[in-house]
# Entry
Amino acid sequence: MLPVYPDLEGRSALVTGASSGIGLGIAQALLAQGMRVALHYRGGREAAEAACKEHPGRAFAVQADLGTEDGCVKLAREAVEKLGGAHVLVHSAGIWNAGSIEQMDAGRLEEMFRVNVFSAFYLVRELAPALRASGHGSIVLIGSTAGQRGEQGHSHYAASKGALQSFALSLAVELAPRIRTNVVSPGWIRTPMAEAALRTIGPLVASTLPNRRLGEIEDVVNAVLYLSSDASSHLIGENLSVSGGALLVVPRGQLQPR
# Structure
């Protein structure tokens, strides 16, 4: 059962990566709060549109390639137009793939930063005026505990999430007090992206955590709802680690999150 935040009713949000996993869960939860939501997707059109059909007049599916500046600009402008403004930006879209440093090529590195980092810069740049004008602007960037401690075999991914966290710290001061900026950093969460890895190491990962369980999408959704609402009005520049305490107990370089 998700908590209810009455102040969110009637407000509007753009959620990126909203056709599956964490992004879709967040979009559905915001819609359940009575918000108007633009669900961004790149290739998962059917899932995004299916979610919209459950909330006619309040949910809008918007396609865009966030690996390009033009795609980010298009998404931001179309979302503001459909929503009539913007109170919340939840940037959940991102990619995760493996690659040792000795095999890292420019194409793989650049793609990681275009999708995971540059898109955040472009979206915030375009949406800041609408978020400021709303009087209740909130930016929630979905990071990763990999950005806090690194991830062997995924250094480009960990670096991109570390950059996202530094970006959020700068925004937190630059955009306050009209816009609050915070980060939610999941650890191992049961998502389609992590499914293959968790089939192999899931039980071992869970055994290392203080609560002895893997995270669920709802765990991340709860954190995002809180940071989107006025209930978190005194939180600015925070990084909420939704990892079951993984940062406290798992040795560096082992069992790193997605």
